[in-house]
Write a structure and sequence with these properties.
The structure holds two protein chains of two kinds.
Chain A (H helix, E strand, L loop, with lengths): L2 H7 L3 H9 L3 H5 L3 H20 L13 H10 L3 H9 L12 H27 L4
Helix pairs in contact in A: 2-7, 4-7, 5-7
Chain B lengths: L8 H20 L3 H26 L5
The chains are: A mainly alpha, B mainly alpha.
Chain lengths: 130, 62
């Protein structure tokens, strides 16, 4: 199926939701299969590296307004974030670890990259980007 | 997985630069040649920029 045909057949909301849920899946179902797989691999590797570096899966904390932005960013990773929270013993990360700050940066970056993919999937699905 | 990932600061920064550069090269360019060109520009800028900032911060360790 060509990219244009895929765009015509689907609601723009479906690829957008799928793009958020599984990194790269939005591009994949829009006909950009190789790119979708590459995006999925990049976002997943970034997220897993962040977990391995013992970064923090942010949650909103009272009196800490920046945690709202950080939580929004981390939740951008879709199912990766949800699975990591469900499986992790310590979603707050290991603040004493030498790689903690790197882990946080990787996790935030993975979420923000996936949110960019969600917007890109929307543009592709609505024909704003070809 | 921790064992196979680097704990060296430079390598962690380089891995980050690699992933981010690959992502934006795929997102912002459509043609293969243009993608490689942007990838090279981004990774070079990120790694060399990081080294430059580290060098500038060297007199201020704390």
């Amino acid at each position: 199926m060509s990219a244009e045909a895929a765009v015509r057949m689907r609601s723009p909301w479906l690829p957008m939701v799928l793009a958020w849920l599984v990194p790269g899946l939005g591009h994949f179902i829009l006909g950009r299969r190789k790119t979708g797989i590459a995006f999925g691999a990049i976002v997943t590797l970034t997220f897993l590296a962040g977990i391995s570096f013992q970064g923090r899966l942010y949650s909103v904390e009272a009196g800490q307004p920046l945690t709202i932005l950080a939580t929004f960013a981390v939740y951008g990773s879709g199912i990766l974030n949800l699975a990591a929270r469900a499986l992790s013993d310590n979603p707050g990360g290991a603040i004493l670890s030498t790689t903690y700050e790197y882990g946080c940066a990787y996790l935030l970056t993975a979420g923000l990259m996936n949110l960019l993919l969600v917007l890109d999937a929307w543009d592709l699905a609505t024909g704003k980007k070809r | 997985m921790i064992a196979i990932l680097p704990v060296d600061h430079f390598l962690i920064m380089t891995l980050y630069a690699l992933l981010v550069s690959a992502f934006f090269a795929l997102l912002w360019r459509e043609e293969r040649r243009e993608r490689w060109k942007l990838f090279g520009t981004l990774i070079g800028s990120l790694v060399l920029g990081g080294l430059a900032v580290a060098w500038l911060m060297y007199p201020f360790p704390k």
